[in-house]
Amino acid sequence: MVKIQEAENQIITDYEVYEIRPADQELLIPSIEEHKKIFGRVPELVAADGGFHSNANVEKAAEAGVKKLAVPGRRGRSKGKKKKRKERWYTEGLRWRVGCEGRISVLKRRSGLARSRYKGINGMKRWVGFGVIADNLISMGQYLSSG
Length: 147
Known about the structure:
Blueprint: E1 2-6, E2 12-17, H1 28-39, E3 45-47, H2 55-64, E4 68-70, H3 79-85, H4 88-110, H5 120-146
Parallel strand pairs: 3-4
Antiparallel strand pairs: 1-2
Helix pairs in contact: 1-2
C-alpha cells in the first residue's frame, strides 16, 4: 500500500510505502503532523475519504489547528452534520478528494507506479520515490509554463 499526500497544483508533498496495510484511521493525524513538519503549519483544509474518519481523528485534527476537515463520516441525523455537509468548503474539499483518486490513476499510468520494476520492499520504496519525483517535475513544469 502507498499513501500519497498532495498539496495545491498537484504537487506530492509526502508519500509512504507500507509493507503491511495499516488502517486508514491510523494515517490521518500522522499525515497532518507531517504536513506541519514540512510547511511549519497545519493545513487549513484536510480532505480524505471516509475510511480516515473517526470521532477521535476529528477531535485531534481540531486540537492540532485544522479549521476545515472534509472527511465524511457515517451519516448521522445531527443537524450540525447536515449543515456542515451543505457548506461550500466541505463540498469543495470532497471534490478535491475525488480529484486525488484521479491523480493516483495518473501516477500509475504516467509515472509507472502500476508495477514496480524493483524487487522487495526497499525496491518498491525506491520505485515509488522515483515516480513521485518524476510526477512532481511534470506538474511543476506544467504549472510554470501556464503562468
